[in-house]
Amino acid sequence: MIVTISRQSATNGDLIAHLVSERLDLPVYDHQVVEEVGRRLQIDPDLVTHFDETAMNPVESVLWEWRSSMNEDIYARHMRQALLRIARENKAVIIGHGANFIIRTPDTLSVRIVAPKELRIAMYRAGEGVGQEDAMRWIEEQDKHRKRFIEKRFKRDVDDPLAYDLVINLSGLTPEMAADLIAEAARMRHAAHFAVDADATMPQYIEILAHHRSTHHASVGSVLRKRT
């Protein structure tokens, strides 16, 4: 069972991920993935961090490559390998790093956590003690960096709901409620025992949906017959 958690900035995504890990008894991977990449490249993980969830401009990329003997392609390759190694263990809650675009198995639940910008600003201000404008500026910059990172690395839109199995809006949910929903969805997906091959899984989805549709129609027909 693997849960990948993508999150908008200032949505308590890290807290929710740790709450999910407690409910499912799974280890959490966030900065640990960056540290793994650093070990693979035998360089300071702090240098790796500058490539993480950020799309550099060409000048920045050249400077960091000169300083660290690493470029974005090398980083991406080793990050992918690190995430796939974690996936092979099939026991993890992974925060960010575009993991949902790399690990796509029937036993993986991909989650996106979002919230209205006003709520995110309020949460960031409460946590960091900054003003309205500073909070708004930080959130917009973080959103821009993550969006560019996903577009550049995976050619996808981070805000596309079809990239996730479950999108949770925190406007009416506490972190604990969100964690409960994610954990339950992960358990249900794990219990479904879909095929490992995603292509082989599709007929199972279709069969299940068709069964539920026919059952629903039969139930509605029974109710209507009783009324008449």
Layout of secondary structure:
Blueprint (H helix, E strand, L loop, with lengths): L1 E6 L5 H12 L3 E2 L1 H11 L3 H5 L8 H11 L3 H18 L2 E4 L3 H4 L5 E7 L2 H12 L3 H23 L11 E4 L5 H18 L5 H30 L1
Parallel strand pairs: 1-3, 1-4, 2-3, 4-5
Helix pairs in contact: 1-9, 2-5, 7-8
Overview of the molecule:
The protein is an alpha/beta fold and 228 residues long. The chain has helices spanning 13-24, 31-41, 45-49, 58-68, 72-89, 99-102, 117-128, 132-154, 175-192, 198-227; strands spanning 2-7, 28-29, 92-95, 108-114, 166-169. A 5-stranded parallel beta sheet has the order 2-3-1-4-5, sandwiched between helices. The longest helix has 30 residues, at 198-227. The protein is globular. The N and C termini lie far apart (48 Å). Mean pLDDT is 82; it is low at 55-68.
Short description:
With 228 residues, the chain is of the alpha/beta class. Helix content is 63%, strand content 10%.
Keywords for this structure?
single chain; 228 residues; alpha/beta; Rossmann fold; 2 domains; 5-stranded parallel beta sheet; 10 helices; 10% strand; globular
Q: What's the count of strands? A: 5
Number of H- or I-type helical stretches: 10
Supply the helix-strand structural class: alpha/beta
Return the average pLDDT rounded to an integer.
82
Assigned CATH superfamily of the largest domain: P-loop containing nucleotide triphosphate hydrolases
Query: For the CA atoms, what is the radius of gyration?
Result: 21 Å
Please name the CATH architecture of the largest domain. 3-Layer(aba) Sandwich
**Unreliable stretches:** 55-68
Order of helices and strands: EHEHHHHEHEHHEHH
> Which of globular, elongated, flat, extended, rod-shaped describes the shape?
globular
